[in-house]
Design a protein that fits this description.
Shape: elongated
Strand content: under 5%
Number of strands: 0
CATH architecture: Up-down Bundle
Number of helices: 2
Order of helices and strands: HH
Distance between the termini: 9 Å
CATH class: Mainly Alpha
CATH superfamily: F1F0 ATP synthase subunit C
CATH topology: F1FO ATP Synthase
Structural class: mainly alpha
């Protein structure tokens, strides 16, 4: 029983860390792209929000699996 709680915590923690790193890298590249070519800002902004949403969807799956391990197993 104790190991399933530990596994759920590690799953949710690593998913959160991965999302933070991914969004940080994505944001820095977005700012870098706008600094290089400011006229492409509206185009890059749409792509940025799309990719940020996809990047945040993966940790939500990890949190869902962690909650499943905590409460259903």
């Amino acid at each position: 029983m104790e190991y399933s709680i530990l596994a759920a915590g590690i799953t949710m923690g690593l998913a959160s860390i991965g999302a933070g790193v991914g969004v940080g890298i994505l944001g820095s590249k977005f700012i870098e792209g706008i600094a290089r070519q400011p006229e492409l800002a509206p185009f890059l902004q749409g792509r940025f929000f799309l990719m940020m949403g996809l990047t945040d969807a993966v940790p939500m799956i990890g949190v869902g699996l962690g909650m499943y391990m905590l409460f259903a197993l």
